[in-house]
């Protein structure tokens, strides 16, 4: 059972629908003040109105680094838990405001910048939502935005989910090297019947969505791993997945991510690249080399 979160503040990106909304409801029901950081404030307010306890809405567009900076600059209070939940999966080909491929720009770089900018105010934990699809991911540091190779939507999605785990691992190394008590964890929601795939533009994506929905768990079921990663007594860099054989559903359980996700040199290289792309850096002084 989720412990009482009375007096805690939790910021959740993309919390107006799907797993983010279900996560927010669960945490609010346990007494947390939840802040829905969303691109569409009207949809966010509609979601917040249906939640128990204290739920607030603030505007955040992860596809626009100026919005990320504005959100962080306006935040003046402690944050107990930041949950990097928002994401896209196989949308029509496009670019973010900053010229990034959307999977890499929203799923990874937006959250990378947000975390670094908010980190001086974070007191407890940073949870980043990845996915089982990271196991199919490879990270091309020379072309993360698919400008010089044929664009493959699922491969771009898998790359971003791998980046989420590499980010978590390197963030935890840096937190430990700084002497911070803040933890970085990650969650795999499994297969959940959310609207994530509904943004895909191809017929193949729509067919995939239709085929997977009967096999999927509910939004609330998918949120269980995120809630566990945010509240359970876990070591840093824990990766929480459903306990089922295929990790598509089941009780939350700490699992081992792919070999690529456990590559410390790749994680450091991704961090350096992400710093240059977002013009943000790890804000805490390091006592030792991470």
Automatic annotation (TrEMBL):
Q: Where do Polar residues bias regions lie?
A: 238-249
For molecular function, the Gene Ontology terms on record are:
oxidoreductase activity
Which residue ranges run through the membrane? none
Domain of life per record: Bacteria
Q: Which Gene3D superfamilies match?
A: NAD(P)-binding Rossmann-like Domain
CDD domains per the record? retinol-DH_like_SDR_c_like (cd05327)
What are the entry keywords?
Oxidoreductase
Q: Does the keyword Oxidoreductase apply?
A: yes
The region called Disordered is annotated at 233-265
Q: Family per UniProt? A: Belongs to the short-chain dehydrogenases/reductases (SDR) family.
Spell out the PANTHER family in the cross-references.
PHOSPHATIDYLINOSITOL-GLYCAN BIOSYNTHESIS CLASS F PROTEIN, PHOSPHATIDYLINOSITOL-GLYCAN BIOSYNTHESIS CLASS F PROTEIN-RELATED
Name listed for the protein in its UniProt record: Short-chain dehydrogenase
Naturally occurring in which organism (per UniProt):
Micromonospora carbonacea
The organism that produces this protein has a lineage beginning with: Bacteria, Bacillati, Actinomycetota, Actinomycetes, Micromonosporales
């Amino acid at each position: 059972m989720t412990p009482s979160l009375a007096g805690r503040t939790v910021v959740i990106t993309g919390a107006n629908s799907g797993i983010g909304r279900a996560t927010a409801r669960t945490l609010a029901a346990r007494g947390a003040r939840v802040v829905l950081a969303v691109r569409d404030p009207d949809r966010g307010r509609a979601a917040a109105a249906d939640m128990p306890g204290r739920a607030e809405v603030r505007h955040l567009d992860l596809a626009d680094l100026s919005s990320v900076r504005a959100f962080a600059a306006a935040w003046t209070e402690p944050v107990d838990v930041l949950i990097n939940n928002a994401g896209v999966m196989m949308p029509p080909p496009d670019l973010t405001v900053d010229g990034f491929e959307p999977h890499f720009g929203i799923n990874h770089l937006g959250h990378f910048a947000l975390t670094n900018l908010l980190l001086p105010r974070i007191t407890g934990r940073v949870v980043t939502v990845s996915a089982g699809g990271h196991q199919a991911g490879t990270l091309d540091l020379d072309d993360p935005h698919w400008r010089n190779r044929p664009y493959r939507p699922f491969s771009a999605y898998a790359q971003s989910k791998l980046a989420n785990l590499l980010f978590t691992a390197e963030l935890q190394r840096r937190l430990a090297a700084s002497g911070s008590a803040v933890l970085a964890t990650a969650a795999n929601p499994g297969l959940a019947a959310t609207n994530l795939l509904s943004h895909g533009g191809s017929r193949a994506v729509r067919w995939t969505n239709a085929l997977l929905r009967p096999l999927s768990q509910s939004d609330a079921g998918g949120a269980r791993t995120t809630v566990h990663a945010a509240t359970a007594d876990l070591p840093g860099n824990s990766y929480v997945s459903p306990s089922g054989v295929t990790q598509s559903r089941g009780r939350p359980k700490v699992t081992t991510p792919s070999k690529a996700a456990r590559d410390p040199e790749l994680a450091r290289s991704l961090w350096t690249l992400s710093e240059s792309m977002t013009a943000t850096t790890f804000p805490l002084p390091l006592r030792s080399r991470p």
